[in-house]
Amino acid sequence: MPVGVVLCGGRSSRMGRDKAFVEVDGVPMARRVADALVGAGCHPVAAIGGDAAGLAVLGLDAVRDDWPGEGPLGGVLTALQNWPDADAVVAVACDLPRLTARTVQRLVDALAGSPNAVAAAAVTDRIEPLCVAWRPAASSLLAEAMVSGERRLRAVLAEAPSVHVPVDLQDLANVNAPSDLGTNLSPHVDP
Hints:
Helices cover 32% and strands 20% of the residues. With 191 residues, the chain is of the alpha/beta class.
């Protein structure tokens, strides 16, 4: 069974407040992402980093980021090291509120169907490094990257044996600033 993690450790500087708690259609973004992970059969689903007390109110257990301030690569590494026996760890940024369970399931299925891959990454017009199903074995690659000073997940994915999963651009509508709330979040229904 895959584990789901919502990456909540960012500074949210462009948003001006913690993105995990910004509501889209009345539901905080971290909860929306968690619901997509649950809908795809991920268990457990937890948050990495962020405001543990606030995330608990949303029904999410928060796992302390072992690499605070080092970007999402540290959050993913933390998740992989916390669940070394999982079939897969699906790591998704909290600011992808239109993610669907169907997209998550496609990532999990693609990874399961690619025994030589350590990651299955969502792709629109480019790879989305913050929506990836990882094999826990990838933790060694991420740890090497951290030690070498690399902090970009995109760079790690470029070197790692991975499979790319084309997904609908709307599923990965990213919310970084208040202006993003109205422009790229048209109503979306998960089929």
